Amino acid sequence: MPTVLDHPLAAHNLTILRDRTTSSPDFRQAARRLAHLLVAEATCDMSLEDVEIETPLEATTGKRLAKPVVLVSVLRAGLGLIDAALELFPDARIGYAGVQRSEDTAEPLEYYTKFPHLDDARVLILEPMLATGGSLQWAASKVAEQGATDVTAVCVVAAPAGIEHMSRAHPDVRLVTAAVDRSLDENFYIRPGLGDMGDRLFGTE
Ligand code: URA
For residue 106, what pLDDT band results from cuts at 50, 70 and 90? Predict the structure, then answer.
């Protein structure tokens, strides 16, 4: 089962995203604020290691993250979360998973992939709209082929069909989302959802 963000700011920003009257700049900003919360939740169990430092007054032991983070943006809507993720993890390496939904079958069609070294990292797959789960399953298989073993998917909204698909295909991939919505419609859009995330981020139709 996914981790569903339980925070007033998540609910507030998700409502801005859902509202059809939200302008493109406001949509981007709300997506950014929500991404901060989602990425923080997706990394809340990361291991730390001790590090010896000196404050201006004395030596002390601090903590730092024990392993690197890789962000994998599922194109194109995943790009809407990447800046916020980089603000939290400025050293993160970045991969791209270019996949398009077939208009007829909603099956994933690959057009571009490029991954950094993955096998020692916490891999965050940024897939804002978990609809059928086809694209996320495809991206999770790709990163697993490249050696990723610690993978969390960061979603804004998830549909029950996508969650089931992922729990069958990749039970080891953790899911973090701001909401689990009711269902998919006949065009594979999430209902009530927020429409086409890519179109709303980038002003296309
Ligand atoms: N992708 C979107 O952008 N929106 C949906 O509802 C489903 C997939």
Answer: low
Q: Which CATH architecture has domain 3-202?
A: 3-Layer(aba) Sandwich (3.40)
Atom of ligand 1 nearest to the CA of 189: 6
3-state secondary structure of 157: strand
Paired residues of 70 in beta bridges: 93, 123
Closest atom of ligand 1 to 199 CA is 3
In whole angstroms, give the CA distance from residue 195 to residue 48.
38
Catalytic residues: 101, 105, 196, 199
User: Smallest Cα–Cα separation from 176: which of 153, 194, 150?
Assistant: 153
For the stretch 194-203, pLDDT in tens is: 999 999 999 9
Most ligand 1 atoms within 8 A of CB, residue of 185, 190, 200 to mutate: 190
Model pTM score: 0.95
- Give the Å distances, CA to CA, from 73 to 55, 56, 113, 175: 37, 39, 10, 15
- Max CA separation in the chain (angstroms): 65
Would you say the CB of residue 77 lies under 6 angstroms from ligand 1? yes
Cα 189 to averaged position of ligand 1 atoms, centre (Å)? 5
Domain boundaries, the chain: 3-202
